[in-house]
């Protein structure tokens, strides 16, 4: 037979549809809980105990909650007995007091009224997301202040904490999820729909990724950067650089970037810290298309997958120091990180062959393990070949 706890669990599952009915102004209708008409057949005392449990928590005993309707039924094991044939909540008050939701629903009604008065077009969102209305109850005044501002200023071009909205400085950052859903409805014609990040989607300034690079040609460093050769700039500024260079070396690891300080002087060349999969940030550097691009990554599956990613942006990229000879010369039996990549990669035949060896054995040779003199000898040869 159904227990009081099971009755409460089933009632709670009906709570969302009840909240939706309030928004839609539907009158409360008798709310029926489907019960289990089976009972313990072992003894009359067990049967009576089950009945007593559900009656003790009913409206008959507590003055609120569910109502039980009984009917005399002749049972096979226990003779004629009164069995509950219906369990229901007759009034909204019975339902809410049983769940302990009376105060919450009053606040919900107030929040709904405030939201719809401010933005009637959000009614459908409320109907679909009543629990979000409940969970954000203390914040609705501030959330609506943010929405009003964006409605009036859909392209602020300010940082989040610069916005002239009288809310806590971190309020928007902490409540981005719900604000994003609302702004998608309120200003659809002004959002950058392809962008997922809040700042980019809603025309705000944001902290751009920094591109770190070293100028390996001292003459260029002197002429354009007053001799400074280790530089970091926002990606938007990097994309507009106009330097007289012919070659770009992209290195995967920061330690390897430091190593480039010891490289032989390389005419018309800069070295960039690619930051692993962060090479994504370089995909719109259109002036790369006119240059010779070299990529130097770890000799492991991730290194080749990042090379493949970068080559997807710039197909003529050439890998360096990522060959079988270098690997066999300096490999120290280090294990790598397993990969889940199953798609085909933008690799040459020799690169793909080495990639499969690394993948099968889970091997790795990090850039840092290749001695400086070996690297310098390679770039000496590279210089002579240029």
From TrEMBL:
Pfam families: DUF3322, JetD_C. GO terms for molecular function: DNA binding. GO terms for cellular component: chromosome. Residues 207-377 form the Wadjet protein JetD C-terminal domain. This is Wadjet protein JetD C-terminal domain-containing protein. Residues 4-183 form the DUF3322 domain. It comes from the Bacteria.
């Amino acid at each position: 037979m159904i227990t009081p706890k099971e009755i409460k669990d089933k009632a709670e599952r009906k709570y969302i549809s009840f909240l939706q009915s309030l928004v839609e102004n539907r009158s409360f209708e008798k709310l029926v809980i489907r019960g289990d008409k089976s009972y313990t057949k072992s003894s009359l005392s067990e049967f009576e105990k089950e009945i007593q449990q559900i009656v003790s928590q009913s409206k008959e005993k507590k003055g609120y909650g569910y109502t039980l309707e009984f009917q005399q039924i002749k049972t096979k094991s226990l003779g004629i007995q009164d069995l509950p044939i219906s369990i229901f909540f007759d009034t909204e008050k019975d339902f809410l007091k049983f769940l302990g939701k009376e105060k919450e629903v009053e606040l919900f009604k107030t929040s709904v009224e405030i939201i719809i008065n401010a933005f009637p077009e959000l009614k459908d969102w409320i109907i679909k997301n009543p629990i979000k209305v409940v969970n954000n109850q203390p914040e609705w005044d501030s959330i609506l202040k943010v929405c009003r501002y964006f409605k009036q200023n859909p392209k602020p071009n300010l940082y989040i904490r610069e916005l002239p909205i009288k809310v806590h400085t971190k309020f928007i950052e902490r409540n981005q999820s719900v604000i994003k859903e609302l702004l998608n409805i309120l200003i659809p014609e002004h959002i950058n729909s392809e962008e997922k990040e809040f700042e980019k989607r809603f025309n705000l300034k944001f902290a751009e990724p920094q591109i770190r690079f070293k100028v390996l040609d001292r003459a260029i460093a002197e002429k354009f950067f007053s001799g400074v050769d280790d530089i970091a700039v926002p990606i938007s500024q990097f994309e507009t650089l106009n330097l007289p260079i012919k070659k770009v070396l992209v290195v995967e690891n920061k330690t390897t970037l430091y190593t480039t300080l010891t490289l032989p002087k390389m005419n018309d060349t800069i070295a960039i810290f690619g930051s692993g999969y962060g090479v994504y940030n370089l995909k719109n550097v259109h002036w790369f298309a006119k240059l010779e691009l070299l990529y130097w990554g770890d000799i492991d599956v991730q290194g080749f997958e990042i090379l493949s990613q970068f080559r997807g942006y710039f197909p003529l990229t050439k890998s360096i120091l990522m060959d079988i000879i270098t690997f066999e010369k300096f490999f120290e039996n280090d294990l790598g990180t397993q990969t889940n990549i199953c798609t085909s990669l933008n690799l040459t035949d020799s690169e793909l062959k080495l990639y499969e060896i690394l993948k099968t054995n889970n091997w790795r040779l990090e850039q840092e393990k290749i001695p400086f003199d070996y690297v310098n000898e390679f770039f000496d040869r590279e210089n002579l070949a240029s």
